[in-house]
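Hi support team,

I'm filing this because I wasn't sure whether my run with 6-O-phosphono-beta-D-fructofuranose finished correctly. The job status page said complete, but I'd like someone to confirm that the output block is well-formed before I use it downstream. Pasting the exact inputs I used:
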Amino acid sequence: MTQFKNVGVLTGGGDCPGLNAVIRSVARSCFNRGIRVWGVRNGFGGLVENDIGEMVDRDVSGILHRGGTILGTTNRDNPFNYAIPHDGGYIYKDMSPQALANLKSRGIEALVVIGGDGSLRIANEFTQLGLPVVAVPKTIDNDIPGTERTFGFDTAVACASEALDRLHTTAESHHRVMLLEVMGRYAGWIALHSGMAGGADVILLPEVPYKIEAVVAKIYARKAQNKLFSLVVVAEGAFPLGGEVTVARIVEGSAEKIRLGGVGEKLARQIEELTGLESRCTVLGHLQRGGSPTAYDRILATRYGVAAVDALLAGKAGTMVALQKNRIVTVPIKEIAGQPSNVPPDALHMGRAIGLCFGDEA
Ligand code: F6P
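And here is everything the job wrote out:
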């Protein structure tokens, strides 16, 4: 059993429902063991900038249900390749010694990092420098390997499913094709789960390059059954067979520069042109990331927070807490950092069995 007197906690990368629930859980697990807790503000940037403050119990009171993160976050700062303004531009410097010195000056001996794949990579580098770090898998995209669920995913799916219910009634009334573009980066988890829950007719995922002919054939087949409307869920990372993803913007200074988006509108125009049916696209965007976590995510986040502190005390530095077969386990970060976690082909079986179109058969 390793005993720590001071533990730091930070949230890195894009925000996600359930971050506050993890912070609360980590903090209370520590307080109950007599460990002092330090919140690092604005992700890894706060480590370098020395933006670190001690937390007390009232800081984590009333935050379980709140979206976002009370600590702030950013998906830009990497202490090992830190952007420093210089001559109207930036130079990049390894600021990890500064980050470690800032922790040491407060006696902080270990860190809980709540983040996605970018944060995992940074957490791994700190572990290699001798700082005990345990990570908690965060992202609405559910695209972190080694775990069956990231917290935040269930909330994003609930949001997208509700949007589909709303689109369903208007699609039916106007005999239109309604498309919903959802997030997920290069993984189709949100699209698959919300599409299944929301009764979509077509679900397009990055894992299955689509053929427009297959989508149109499904819409015609429904028309032939006198179903005059169709619901299409399209993941932002979906792309046509032999084609490319649609890029919405490039974010300079971000580790992951490419932001996806726009494929839904492109498809709506194509479908309207090919079928003559009025088609509309709704882009759900950051609505999926904001707001209160579902009960499932609050509980998962709380389990993860407790497990992260347990792991630190058990000397399991360099690991990520994970959900496997409904049990919380730890997996070595170095085995999973930078790996993708995509929807496997067998996850499509249920949809195919009930006649859903994934865009790959014409
Ligand atoms: O990883 C979470 C996520 O919301 C992705 O689904 C999406 O592609 C991306 O972040 C959007 O990032 P940003 O908020 O920086 O535009």
